[in-house]
Amino acid sequence: MGSQYEGYKSPLSTRYASREMQFLFSDQYKFSTWRKLWVFLAKAEGSLGLEISEAQISEMEKEIYNIDFDAAAEEERLTRHDVMAHVHIFAKQCPTAAPVIHLGATSCFVGDNTDLIVLRDALQLLLPRIASVVSQLKQFAETYKDQPTLGFTHLQPAQLTTVGKRACLWIQDLLMDERALSRCQQDLRFRGVKGTTGTQASFLQLFNGDGKKVKQLDQLVTELAGFQKAYAVTGQTYTRKVDVEVVAALSSLGTSIHKMCSDLRILASRKELEEPFESTQIGSSAMPYKRNPMRSERCCALARHLITLFSNAANTHATQWLERTLDDSANRRITLSEAFLSADAALLTLLNISQGLVVYPKVIERHISQELPFMSTENIIMAMVKAGGDRQICHEKIRVLSQEAGAQVKQHGKDNDLVDRVRKDPYFAPILNQLDNILDARTFTGRASDQVEEFVAEEVEPVLARYADALKTVKDVKLNI
Fold first, then answer.
1. Is the pLDDT of residue 431 over 70?
2. Cys-Cys link to 165, which of 52, 68, 136, 448 (CB 3.0-4.6 A)?
3. Percent of the chain scored above 90 by pLDDT?
């Protein structure tokens, strides 16, 4: 007998994704949902006049969760058909109901409808996770809305922003992801009862040509499964365009997570900001002093995988010939599960990060002091003009002093001494008493603080209000590994 360590296990299940999300993609959830669908079908058919008794329904309901997985696997080895294997096993457990199990249905009745239920429930699990991250980042943005920091364009120092304003850029992306995934959830429909090629021919035969009853059957089963609407037309399957839309939204979430965590990694390298670091955590096996941003790196790794899954969903839809081909099956087993499990794992890690971000204002101030003198030159010129100076002369003075200070920084590795050079130059004597105010970093951040307040009130709070109950139960996330 082989060791349990000799077979492949997905890191998504052993290391990263939550138990709740794993359960939605488990065999237990899948096959018990198949059985629920067979019960829904029988109930609806019976209510519309077919000879299906309450005793048969009751017998099936008692066995919904009592699944003999070993027997089903053995049956599938014989039949080479997973749905019929489970029909046979369910029928053996429910001998009275056996004649009506799967009556009139095709395999996609249970397969596709179950997938849609899983997509719905998985979206329902993910959306509050996004809201939880947004809620934490909102608090962070409000706390640091006034903290000046260097802004960067082209990864080069640019005009100042604030730490809180930068966090709002991350939040804005996540709000767009929440909107996209909410739309996916709202747009999601049920495949319903459509038959082998989507024509409902088998059900029309069951009801002796009564098309009205077939439509009622479709709607009844749809409602029993918790959906308001079914797709009006299908082939054998619901259109795989649905998978494209859902995985596209998840992949887009991956880009937001990757961008934010890349920013965190850059800021960590500058020692301006750090993700949580536990007291017993080891940063490096060779360099004990290191505090590596491993959580952000994990998010980037998972997000990159999530982003790539979109091409699988897109190509699968593109190659579904006519009413369907089976080359979607193996791919979807991997793509749909890994998309949700990766998103779940990345969001849990991101929530852990956002619950414990550490800012180092003194480091940020030191970095500002190295760049602000250059940024302040226009303000110095304007102050001199107001004091009666000639702009052109002042501009040349500042240009020369800036070049000299730049040489000290770049050629000699020294601190930026432009302000000292300005103070020592008699030409600038008229404004020396204003210099501290001119160099106050808070005067260089524009409306950043106001933008944080406005953004939170107008954009963030209305979204979080929809998740108020879920946010009350959020706890500190502890990563297993």
1. yes
2. 448
3. 74
The residue annotated as part of the active site, out of 269, 284, 311, 329, is 284
Specify whether 102 is catalytic: no
CA atoms within 13 A on the CB side of 70: 0
Give the Cα separation of 52 and 56 in Å (integer).
7
Residue the block writes with tokens 């995985």? 247
The helix/strand/coil state of 161 is: strand
Contact 367, 161 (CB under 8 A): no
The CA dihedral of 336, 340, 345, 346, to the nearest 10 degrees, is 100
Higher pLDDT, 21 or 292: 21
**Residue 199: which pLDDT band, with cuts at 50, 70 and 90?**
very high
The C-alpha atoms of residue 109 and residue 98 are separated, in whole angstroms, by: 17
Q: Say which of 3, 154, 279, 412 is annotated catalytic.
A: 154
Which residue is listed with tokens 């596209």? 248
| Residue carrying the six token digits 């059900």 | 203
* Residue 94 near residue 101 (C-beta atoms within 8 A): yes
* pLDDT given at position 121: 97
Q: How far apart are CA 442 and CA 362, in angstroms?
A: 15
For residues 126 and 254, give the distance between their C-alpha atoms in angstroms, rounded to a whole number.
Answer: 13
The pTM of the whole model exceeds 0.70: yes
Cα angle 469-470-476, degrees, rounded to a multiple of 5: 130
Q: What residues pair up with 153 in beta bridges, in sequence order?
A: 156
From the list 159, 172, 46, the residue with the least C-alpha distance to 97 is 46
* Cα–Cα dist 46/283, whole Å: 64
Cβ-in-10-Å burial (0-12, 13-18, 19+) of 481 comes to exposed
| Residues 85, 79: Cα–Cα separation, whole Å | 7
Instruction: Please state, in angstroms and rounded to a whole number, the distance separating the CA atoms of residues 257 and 346.
Output: 8
Confidence of residue 144 (pLDDT cuts 50, 70, 90): very high
> Which one-letter amino acid corresponds to residue 47?
S
Residue 2 — pLDDT band, cuts 50, 70, 90? low
The band of 461, judged by pLDDT with boundaries at 50, 70 and 90, is very high
Instruction: Assess whether pLDDT exceeds 80 at residue 93.
Output: yes
Q: Clarify whether 86 is annotated catalytic.
A: no
The pLDDT of residue 380 is above 90: no
Nearest to 120 by CA among 189, 200, 54, 72: 189
Q: Which ranges constitute the DSSP H helices of 319-447?
A: 329-354, 361-375, 377-386, 391-410, 418-424, 435-438
